[in-house]
Amino acid sequence: xxxxxxxxxxxxxxxxxxxxxxxxxxxxxxxxxxxxxxxxxxxxxxxxxxxxxxxxxxxxxxxxxxxxxxxxxxxxxxxxxxxxxxxxxxxxxxxxxxxxxxxxxxxxxxxxxxxxxxxxxxxxxxxxxxxxxxxxxxxxxxxxxxxxxxxxxxxxxxxxxxxxxxxxxxxxxxxxxxxxxxx
Length: 183
Known about the structure:
Elements lengths: L4 H12 L4 H12 L6 H11 L6 H13 L6 H15 L3 H15 L18 H12 L5 H11 L10 H19 L1
């Protein structure tokens, strides 16, 4: 496949400039006139041919090579190794862990578990914990006060919905249950 130097330059500038693949392909269409139906094929060809990015196959092979010379002793040691690989290969932690898991699977190595941080409180999400803490500090609060407090402090969802009333009502129902249970 023949590709003009102008297309190669647009792709190279886009990758070094930190543009998304979609923005680079848009620039290929608007600046170079690459046909829309061929954009993805041309983009992938140039990236591989000019070694602008490491392919997943190459990345996983390099990770396997690095892992073959290391003996993992603990979860923390594995984490340190993964961070080192990320730095050396300039990849994300997710890409690194996929490569390490792939290597471990083919080599028959059992990886130690990494301890995850617990989320929220004791079985509660962060929102429930915030509201139950408020109720415990303000034992005489009303349902309306709880809803008002929730709308002030709880974050909106990704779709920008205000779910504070839902959480406040759930916590209020728990308060009613606790009062009835304790009486």
